[in-house]
Amino acid sequence: MKFSEYSQYDGLGLAKLIQNKEAQASELLEVAIQRTQHINPQLNAIVIKMYEQARQRAHHNLTGPFAGVPFLLKDLHQEYAGVPTSFGSNTFKRLNYMPTQNSEMVNRWENSGVIMFGLTNTPEFGIKGITEPEAWGSCHNPWNLKHNSGGSSGGSASAVAAGIVPIAGASDGGGSIRIPASYCGLFGLKPSRGRTPWGPNSSEAMHGAAMQHVLTKSVRDSAAMLDATQGPDHTSLFNIQAPTQSYLELIKKSPKPLKIAFSTESPIGTQVSQDAIQAIQQTAKLLESLGHQVVEAKPQIDGMALATDFITTWFSQCAYTVQQFKKLYAVTDHDFELDTLAIAGLGAKATALDYIHNLNNWGVYVTKMNRFFDDYDLYLLPSTASVAPKNGEVKTPAWQIPILKGLLKVDKVHLLAKGKLVEQLIKNNLQWVPFTQLANITGLPAMSVPLYWNKDNLPLGSQFIAPFGGEDILLQLAAQLEQAQPWMPKYQEIHI
Question: What residue stretches are annotated with the Amidase domain (predicted)?
């Protein structure tokens, strides 16, 4: 099979070819590997190869909805026993860290029939909305190689958009599925808290704010993979209610007419590009043409307060991660990126009382969103504040580097977050991506749908947030939008 034919199918489409004996799993794998060898030097999407394991698996009698379909893991908490993983960090790259067991999500993906042949680029410990770790370098956006693919699932997004695979593993703790989906023109769904598992090493990540799923070209691939992976494991803290029927079946029916609130205003008062505004305006018109009611409205939530609570958790979690790795692997500050150390330094100074107050606030936001959804079925807003930034555009300014190093040396980096500097710190960190953290903090399902490309042919996603457990309504609407304005043909415009 030639790549030109391979790239026209989504995952279920490729699986159908294998089922009908029109193609073999080993054949599709070799197309994916050849595509990788041809374009990955330009994309830098795949950083760890596992070709031999994949070739062996391709000759097995595979079963499941995606039997024989090439697949990529994210190099972050998607461990495959016996395959090195780096978490995007030079520390683990140097240590040649090798997990001894699969993560539960990896097991469930394998049970769906996919063939995993590599791990994708991600920022160090997944802490940024862009993918340019010192360990591996920048991940380039296939729509324009001068631009980044976003983060933290940037490598997976680039690989899917460029046609290496139709579907790849991803995770989302502050937008890390939806941000790269927006920048790379893909469909990206973040499930509700607890919908997919984190075992066997964790019961949940970031108090349930972080979830694992996939990035896809088609809505039905995302639905079918959620069918294959949803539900608790032995480590899960609670058992989320299962859907009444499979998501793949549900999306065959159009949703009822929905009342959808929308906003294009940054919740933290930062600039929103005309592209983002136009994306939502065009999406609103499309929704109305499909019989939905679209109303400009937003929940009564203090966006800066929510961002502060998110940053408190994000930075504190980073501090804990760095501390644990220092204990377990006898590494020092010199083994981590400067930005990671700065974030950890800030997070380490949060008091227990600050942290508990922050977590209690999460419940307030949940309550306000529940009340908001008494009046509206969904909430529409941009996935990102602009199209993808250029590589190197989102970085610590050169003049700040010696200041950070000096403050870190004397354990005073937390002074950067005193007084009015707190607000500026938050805006600097979230100005590109101020819209995604709401769904993480509240544990609500959210998706980025690729409905807009600007005059430079760079995509920007439309984000929808649903009530808790509302993946069904999101997927139904996404399928309706995909049918009304198909985006799969757009991928044929990528020439690398």
Answer: 27-475
The 3-class SS string of 123-185 reads: CHHHCCCCCCCCCCCCCEECCEEEEECCCCCHHHHHHHHCCCCCEEEEEECCCCCHHHHHHHC
The type of residue at 377 is D
Q: Is the peptide bond before 200 cis (omega within 30 degrees of 0)?
A: yes
pLDDT tens-digit series, residues 474-489 = 999 999 999 999 999 9
Backbone dihedral region of 45: left (phi > 0), alpha (psi from -120 to 50 degrees) or beta?
Answer: alpha
Looking at residue 6, its amino acid is Y
**Domain residue extents for the chain:** 3-252+481-493, 303-375+395-430
Nearest by Cα to 197 from 167, 247, 239, 151: 239
CB 212 within 8 A of CB 169: yes
**How would you class 493 by CB atoms within 10 Å of its CB: exposed for 0-12, middle for 13-18, buried for 19 or more?**
exposed
CATH of domain 3-252+481-493: 3.90.1300.10
**Residue 137 CB contacts under 8 Å (≥ 6 apart), including other chains:** 44
CA–CA gap between residue 388 and residue 234 (Å, rounded): 39
164's CB contacts (< 8 A; 6+ apart) are 32, 35, 36, 39, 40, 45, 46, 70, 72
> Residue 324 is encoded by which pair of tokens?
């644990």
**Is pLDDT of 229 > 90?**
yes
At 367, is the secondary structure helix, strand, or coil?
helix
Please state, rounded to an integer, the average pLDDT across all residues of the chain.
96
Question: Quick one: pLDDT at residue 298?
Answer: 98
Q: Among residues 251, 344, 363, 244, which one has the least CA distance to residue 306? A: 363
Beta-bridge mates of residue 172: 211
Question: From CA 406, how far away is CA 136, in angstroms rounded?
Answer: 26
pLDDT digits (tens, 9 = 90+) for 258-307: 999 999 999 999 999 999 999 999 999 999 999 999 999 999 999 999 99
Distances in whole angstroms, Cα of residue 454 to Cα of each of 220, 262, 388: 26, 20, 11
Strand pairing class (259-262; 211-216): unpaired
Q: Residue 301: how many CA atoms within 13 Å on its side-chain side?
A: 33
Q: Name the token pair of 426.
A: 């938050």
**pTM here?**
0.97
Mean predicted confidence (pLDDT) in 126-132: 97
Query: Structure tokens of 351?
Result: 């008091």
